[in-house]
Design a protein that fits this description.
Elements (H helix, E strand, L loop, with lengths): L1 E2 L8 E2 L7 E6 L5 E6 L5 E6 L3 E3 L9 E5 L4 E5 L5 E5 L6 E4 L4 E5 L5 E5 L6 E6 L5 E6 L9 E3 L3 E7 L7 E7 L4 E7 L13 E2 L6 E2 L18
Antiparallel strand pairs: 1-2, 3-4, 4-5, 5-6, 7-8, 8-9, 9-10, 11-12, 12-13, 13-14, 15-16, 16-17, 17-18, 19-20
């Protein structure tokens, strides 16, 4: 895992020792992040001081992380597909809901967890952390692109099929207050759903970032000379 400036400058490698980091999430203050090892599925936490310091692997559970809620608590998806809250510095977990969920996102106030139920799911759901009440937020995500969405202050940006097209996609904005979905712009290319995402919104709300995955088997090359 690397950390760099927003324009890609000054990259710094922050993980070593054969880790295979995946699904990283920043803390709200930008001073720490959590991620899981794709090979062992152990959960790690990194914090910044004069340099990056990696905490040891936690054995609390095996699963995928969401984001740091505060300096004290994380929300995680456990081995039994439960949503759990675990102290960032270690300690016993507490359940939030027993509903299966992947591709987690947490509201800025920590009161709701957003998630997709299945990898092929096209609906986005949320659960209230205090009561466990669950409701559907929107429908129309691209199948198998379960993390192609990002929370904003008043709604959600997400990738969905372009209305009236079989092979195009568009960026939509779902407005919480109005309950409406607005087509913002056509996506410039078809996104390979598996491996794409997660979408991420910059703190000032000006930029929407996504991960593009180029299929490794898309081209055939000839190498000369060959022995």
């Amino acid at each position: 895992m690397w950390v760099c400036d927003s324009d890609g400058a000054n990259p710094v490698q922050v993980t070593h020792a054969g880790l295979r980091p995946s699904v990283a999430r920043w803390s709200p203050d930008g001073r720490a992040f959590v991620f899981n090892d794709a090979r062992t599925r152990e959960i790690f936490r990194g914090a910044v001081g004069r340099r990056w310091h990696m905490g040891g692997a936690t054995q609390w559970l095996q699963g995928s992380t969401s984001r740091v809620l505060s300096r004290r608590a994380l929300d995680l998806r456990g081995r039994r597909r439960r949503h759990l809250r675990i102290p960032a510095d270690g300690g016993p977990s507490s359940p939030v809901t027993n509903i299966r969920g992947i591709s987690l996102g947490i509201s800025a106030d920590g009161k709701q967890i957003y998630f997709v139920r299945e990898p092929s799911g096209t609906d986005l759901w949320r659960v209230e952390t205090a009561t466990g009440r669950i409701e559907k937020v929107l429908q129309g995500l691209v199948p198998y692109c379960s993390s192609c969405w990002a929370l904003a202050a008043g709604g959600i940006y997400y990738l969905g099929p372009k209305e009236g097209s079989l092979d195009k996609q568009a960026i939509y904005y779902h407005n919480f207050a109005a309950g409406t979905d607005k087509d913002l712009l056509d996506y410039p290319e078809t996104v390979p759903a598996i491996g794409s995402g997660p979408f991420s919104l910059s703190p000032d709300g000006r930029y929407l970032l996504c991960v593009r995955v180029h299929p490794s088997n898309a081209n055939v090359f000839r190498v000369e000379p060959f022995r």
